[in-house]
């Protein structure tokens, strides 16, 4: 076996593969997207390119991956094979991993010392927005699972910022499955400034010697009578809802053609009629919501099983019984046909769907024939994952569930630390079967997985390819797909196969005709060698750290604003000490009005500063997004603006919001106009007059004024107090206390 020979790669460690070297050489010439099936060594290509850039260019490499387990995986790989410039083992500080758990100050110090940084993209985006360090000396940016670079995902911002800020930028994007939609793939290329596409498939001449046989089996499954009867009830419920919609003059799909595409088309009709102020459209929207719930129930019966259906029916029942439940849920659970289904389901004492027992027998047979095997079972829903874990455990098979971080109801998710630990135990053979949701599809480093079982077929070509890629990486493997006959399983099986073929064809055509790199849409003022070398040119804006995932923060950065990230008690953006801005989309504004305490939220912000601002973002009709009388909406707007004194602004989109914030910050930071602390008001209570009078003192806002008045009881007592007494009040520092004392005693000249 031949090995890669490079001054910065550990000798006799990386197998020399012609296709990897060819791809790496191409990637050194231009921003490149690499599309390689899982198991063919995308990370090895990244290592070769990184070693070459570090050898020829002074600077550092930044490797991005969407999840902490993937980041940790890349860190382990690079640590194992990358050497220092002098050929020695690197220092521990040469490699650093950043995730949301790493404190900002520690990240800043570690960045200055490292040669290779491994991170999740949101962390790097936040640090760039806050100006903690720059990307000027990054000589290679590696973007793993690059198909995520769409919309407002952090990859999009970072690619644009890197290409504008780096002295010698080079970007390497990697994925096993960019998708079959050519428009989406082109969007990814544009967002990442890709100039060339390098792809290989398993049949390519230079790849074929490294491909291990993968046996794909499709197992037909038939529904038992009890579940067939449940389907009859659910389809009858769907038919009655569609019939009512048809009577309201909507074009409805046939009950047996109730796909998401058809439901989305129906919803588009409903929204059009809502915008036209058609009262029947609001009834239709509720019926549409019932259809969505029933379609999900049908999918559970067909592809998941009786236990998943029972849990869903229980959740629907709880929602329907709740005072906060939707009209759709209340009407559905009151339907006699639905109630008969709930009664029938209560009598099911065990899982009825044959898939569960088939999975158990497949796993048992594999382990009996090959006791050292590792098996991954993929299921879409957590309820099914837990059912499978229970069934396998009851059968004496050691297994663990692998799910995402979010917790729901009484079910707790897995933290990223727990995910990494679980993968480590699986890799070491502490248990032989991992039962995973989609979180396990992307980038799991489990080389010796011998069998992958799809509990259900998936329509997404990306997910299908990623699932299949979990086996056959370093030896032959088996893929088993369970398909319930006459259901969406069969449809999804063929949809996925068609999309996989389309993806390969599309990527082939892109690799033969490379895309030209788009010009980064970054203002010229931002294109500087190192923005940290200059004083901030733009106005200062404090952004709540929960807002960085929005497009607004990225656009503010492009405009040149000086951004500070912190957790704000009130509002989403703070400008100086006088302005707080709450940003809500049209949908969020109406949802908060109906479902949460909008007035309490806005009032708290209005009480905190003299100049509160509410921005409602989006061009949707404020009166049409929820079934609320227009006068109720008008009354809400009047209360916010007149009663609470909040300035109300409408913006088109996130970019428009950012530009409004930028102008507000410019005006607040300039000397233009007289800066009046106290807005005009026709009437104030004595309490308000006292608060506003004290708020005129230096560095005293309304919040501090209230704290002082509550402590001392009167303005005179505050004026007469010594600095030490003033500073004893929580939130009043020595500097502020001295300023109050000094101003109260300074002669007027």
Keywords:
single chain, 7-stranded parallel sheet, alpha/beta, globular, 48% helix, 28 helices, 749 residues, 6-stranded parallel sheet
Task: Describe this entry's structure for a reader.
- The chain is an alpha/beta fold and 749 residues long.
- Helices cover 48% and strands 13% of the residues.
- Helix 9 packs antiparallel against helix 10.
- It is globular and about 95 Å long.
- The termini are far apart.
- About 4% of the residues have low confidence.
Strand element count: 19
Q: Kindly name the structural category.
A: alpha/beta
Strand order in space, largest sheet: 3-4-2-5-6-1-7
The main β sheet shows up as:
7 strands, parallel
Q: Outline, from the CA principal axes?
A: globular
- Unreliable stretches covering 5 or more consecutive residues: 513-536, 671-677
Measured by DSSP, the beta-strand proportion falls in 5-15%
Q: DSSP helix count?
A: 28
In helices, the fraction of residues equals 40-55%
Q: What is the mean pLDDT?
A: 83
Question: What is the C-alpha radius of gyration, as a whole number of Å?
Answer: 30 Å
Q: Topology of this structure?
A:
Blueprint: H1 18-27, E1 32-35, H2 42-56, E2 60-64, H3 68-81, E3 95-98, H4 104-113, E4 116-119, H5 121-130, E5 138-144, H6 154-165, E6 171-175, H7 182-191, E7 196-199, E8 214-221, H8 225-247, H9 260-275, H10 279-304, H11 306-321, H12 327-333, H13 336-346, H14 354-369, E9 374-378, H15 382-394, E10 399-402, H16 416-428, E11 433-436, E12 449-454, H17 461-468, E13 477-484, H18 488-512, E14 540-544, H19 551-559, E15 562-566, E16 573-575, E17 579-585, H20 586-595, H21 598-608, E18 611-617, H22 630-643, E19 647-651, H23 654-669, H24 686-695, H25 702-712, H26 715-720, H27 723-727, H28 734-745
Parallel strand pairs: 1-6, 1-7, 2-4, 2-5, 3-4, 5-6, 8-13, 9-11, 9-12, 10-11, 12-13, 14-15, 17-18, 18-19
Antiparallel strand pairs: 14-16, 16-17
């Amino acid at each position: 076996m031949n090995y890669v020979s490079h001054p910065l790669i550990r000798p006799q460690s990386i197998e020399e593969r012609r296709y990897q070297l060819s791809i790496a050489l191409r990637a050194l010439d231009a921003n490149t997207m690499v599309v390689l099936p899982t198991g063919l060594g995308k990370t090895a290509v990244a290592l070769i390119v990184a070693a070459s850039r570090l050898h020829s260019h002074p600077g550092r490499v930044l490797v991005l991956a969407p999840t902490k387990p993937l980041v940790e995986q890349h860190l382990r790989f690079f640590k194992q094979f990358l050497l220092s410039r002098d050929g020695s083992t690197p220092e521990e500080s040469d490699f650093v991993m950043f995730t949301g758990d790493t404190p900002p100050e520690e990240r800043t110090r570690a960045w200055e010392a490292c040669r290779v940084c491994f991170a999740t993209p949101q962390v790097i985006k936040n640090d760039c927005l806050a100006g903690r360090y720059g990307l000027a000396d990054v000589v290679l940016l590696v973007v793993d699972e690059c198909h995520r670079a769409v919309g407002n995902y952090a990859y999009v911002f970072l690619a644009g910022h890197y290409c504008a800020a780096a002295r010698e930028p080079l970007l390497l994007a990697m994925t096993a499955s960019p998708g079959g939609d050519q428009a989406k793939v082109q969007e990814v290329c544009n967002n990442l400034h890709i100039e060339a596409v390098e792809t290989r498939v398993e049949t390519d001449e230079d790849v074929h010697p490294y491909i291990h046989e993968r046996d794909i089996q499709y197992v037909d499954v038939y529904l038992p009578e009890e579940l067939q009867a449940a389907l009859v009830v659910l389809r009858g419920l769907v038919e009655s809802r569609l019939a009512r919609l048809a009577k309201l003059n909507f074009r409805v799909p046939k009950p047996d053609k109730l796909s998401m595409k058809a439901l989305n088309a129906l919803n588009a009709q409903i929204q059009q009629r809502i915008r036209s102020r058609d009262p029947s459209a609001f009834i239709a929207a509720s019926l549409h919501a019932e259809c969505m719930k029933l379609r999900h129930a049908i999918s559970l019966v067909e592809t998941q099983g009786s236990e998943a259906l029972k849990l869903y029916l229980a959740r629907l029942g709880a929602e329907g019984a709740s005072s906060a439940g939707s009209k759709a849920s209340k009407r559905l659970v009151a339907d006699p046909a639905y109630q008969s289904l709930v009664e029938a389901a209560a009598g099911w004492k065990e899982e009825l769907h044959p898939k569960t027992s088939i999975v158990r027998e497949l796993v048992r047979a594999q382990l009996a024939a090959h006791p050292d095997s590792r098996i991954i079972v993929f299921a879409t829903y957590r309820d099914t994952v837990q059912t499978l874990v229970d069934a396998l455990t009851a059968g004496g098979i050691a297994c663990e569930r692998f799910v995402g971080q979010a917790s729901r109801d009484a079910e707790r998710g897995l933290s990223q630390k727990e995910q990494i630990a679980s993968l480590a135990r699986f890799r070491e053979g502490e248990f032989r079967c991992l039962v995973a949701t989609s979180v396990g599809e992307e980038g799991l480093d489990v080389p010796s997985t011998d069998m992958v079982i799809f509990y259900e077929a998936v329509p997404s070509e990306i997910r299908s390819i990623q699932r299949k890629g979990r086996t056959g990486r370093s030896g032959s493997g088996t893929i088993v797909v369970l398909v319930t006959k006459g259901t969406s399983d069969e449809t999804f099986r063929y949809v996925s196969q068609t999309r996989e073929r389309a993806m390969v064809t599309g990527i082939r055509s892109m690799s033969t005709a490379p895309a030209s790199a788009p010009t980064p849409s970054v203002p010229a003022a931002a294109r500087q060698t190192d923005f940290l070398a200059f004083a901030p040119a733009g106005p200062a804006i404090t952004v709540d750290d929960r807002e960085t995932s929005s497009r607004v923060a990225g656009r503010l950065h492009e405009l040149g604003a000086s951004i500070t990230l912190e957790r704000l008690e009130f509002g989403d953006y703070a400008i100086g000490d006088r302005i707080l801005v709450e940003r809500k989309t049209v949908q969020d504004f109406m949802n908060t009005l109906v479902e949460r305490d909008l007035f309490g939220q806005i009032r708290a912000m209005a009480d905190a500063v003299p100049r509160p601002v509410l921005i409602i973002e989006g061009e949707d009709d404020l009166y049409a997004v929820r079934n609320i009388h227009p006068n109720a909406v008008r009354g809400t707007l009047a209360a916010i603006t007149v009663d609470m004194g909040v300035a109300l602004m409408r913006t088109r989109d996130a970019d428009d919001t950012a530009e409004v914030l930028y102008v507000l910050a410019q005006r607040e930071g300039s000397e233009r106009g007289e800066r009046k602390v106290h807005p005009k008001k026709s009437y104030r209570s004595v309490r308000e007059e006292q608060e506003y009078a004290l708020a005129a003192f230096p560095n005293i806002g309304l919040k501090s004024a209230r704290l002082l008045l509550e402590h001392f009881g009167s303005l005179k007592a505050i004026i007469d107090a010594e600095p030490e007494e003033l500073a004893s009040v929580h939130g009043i520092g020595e500097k502020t206390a001295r300023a109050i004392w000094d101003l109260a005693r300074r002669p007027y000249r």
